Amino acid sequence: MEEELIQIKNTAVSLILDTKNQKELEDIKLQFLGRNGKLTLAIREIAKIAIEKRPEIGQLANGVKQTIEETIEEQELRISSQESIKRKERIDVTSPGIKSNIGHLHPITYVLSEIVDIFKKIGFQAADGPEIETDYYNFEALNIPKDHPARDTQQTLYLDTRKSKVTPGEIILRTQTSNMQIRVMEKMKPPLRVIVPGKVFRYEQVDTSHGFEFWQLEGFMIDKKVTLSDLFGTLTFFLKEFFGKETKVKFVCHNFPFVEPGAEAYISCSICKEKGCSFCKNSGWIEILGAGMIHPNVLKAVKIDPNLWQGFAFGTGLSRMVTLKYQMNDLRLLTNPDLRILEQF
Ligand code: DAH
After folding, report:
1. Domain 107-342, CATH homologous superfamily name and number
2. By alpha-carbon position, which residue is closest to atom 7 of ligand 1?
3. Is the CB of 291 within 6 Å of ligand 1?
4. In this model, does residue 86 exceed pLDDT 90?
5. Cα–Cα–Cα angle for 44, 50, 53, rounded to 5 degrees
């Protein structure tokens, strides 16, 4: 009897392990554990053996049954995991493909290329320059010496140069793209018509209209006999091309150390049509850029004779141009990576 039970166990286990699918496994299960299965019949035989041998044989029979059942369970798992792998590998060549999202340009890049195109029409070319800058290019050469109060308006971020030989405070993150007036004028001879888009940095409290990192656009022209009316004409052309022909432009006196005379340009509010609303702080007008005739001291710093050449310069917040164009009420939306915002452009 013992031998028979062990024989049943060995045959069952090897047959179970040979099965390839659920159907084969079911057959084997029936063959051994079914109502007329080999093990079931053998267990029934136990009643016929001598009473004192029964407990021992009964225990052995239970062990055999347990082994067979466990082997069946394990084989079941093996078969079903293999079947699911096979299912995954199957490719339905007729099913439609998964459409991948195509990205597009960021609104700042859109606006930037639009502005570059507008200025190209009137003979300007675009230049690019360093964001890490020296005090000289960002301030000194622009007629803003060390003790000038205008420095206070541009919260400057200084690089820690203590471990180098550079004098502390000499290397900064540029606070304005005006640094590029000097860099370009040093390298290229007038006549010049240049625009410089780029990132600038200031130690500012971040809110709806301020960031510590934002885009500016600088522009300048140097030629013989350039006048204030060339500046006003150029900027009016640009602002009307960009914001629409119906936009009104006005200039108001303002002081910037690197220009004389200096001005600020305002555009009429497109939302309230000059009636006053929260967007234009109830004034009907929106300040859009700073400008003026390049100060003779700036020209002298780059060895251009101010008696021979004159120029105008202007600078605008490019990030602000974007928010105004799309009537966004928060500058921070431009650096928000949420696709629900970016997908609207
Ligand atoms: N750089 C100035 C600023 O960041 C803006 C500016 C004003 C640029 C007047 C100019 C200018 O070129 O002429 O506030």
Report:
1. Bira Bifunctional Protein; Domain 2 (3.30.930.10)
2. 290
3. yes
4. no
5. 85
